[in-house]
Amino acid sequence: HVRRKDFVLLNYSSTDEYLFTAIDYYIKRYSNAYFIVASDDKSYCKNLFHNRSNIFVTPQSFSMSDDLITLSLCEHSIITGGTFGWWTGYLANGQVIHDKVYPSGCERREYYYPPWFLIDGNVRAHKNSKNIL
């Protein structure tokens, strides 16, 4: 899940670099990985991932409920900030990669579900780590 619209204005949005690093992490672990992207800014995501044949953006006609159901059926998740992404990762019940730089005022143990992996949104380190924290 890629949350953008209000987060871009608040400067909370995850970077494109974070998204591509998380995608590359899964591709290294699962060579035949395919990705389904749901977002509040599907046009942005279609443009961002237009040259990746293994990445599909949910249709504009999908409601938030459709997106939630679709992402909850995935084996693993990459999420950005917000409760919608949190719930998609939780319901999917696989590995979850979350942007480490969000949220700024929370205690990590209060926000992140324990088995989740965190990647620094600025991607300064941890690219090949097995357990990213």
UniProtKB/TrEMBL annotation:
One GO BP annotation of this record: carbohydrate metabolic process
Pathway membership, UniProt: Protein modification; protein glycosylation
InterPro entries the UniProt entry points to: Glyco_trans_11
Membrane topology classification: Single-pass type II membrane protein
Keyword terms: Glycoprotein, Glycosyltransferase, Golgi apparatus, Signal-anchor, Transferase, Transmembrane
Cellular localisation: Golgi apparatus, Golgi stack membrane
Pfam families, A to Z: Glyco_transf_11 (PF01531)
GO molecular function, one term: galactoside 2-alpha-L-fucosyltransferase activity
E.C. number(s) listed in UniProt: 2.4.1.-
GO cellular component terms, A-Z: Golgi cisterna membrane
The UniProt record lists the keyword 4Fe-4S: no
Superkingdom as given in the UniProt entry: Eukaryota
Family under the similarity heading: Belongs to the glycosyltransferase 11 family.
Protein name, per record: L-Fucosyltransferase
The organism of origin for this protein: Rotaria sordida
Biological classification of the source: Eukaryota, Metazoa, Spiralia, Gnathifera, Rotifera
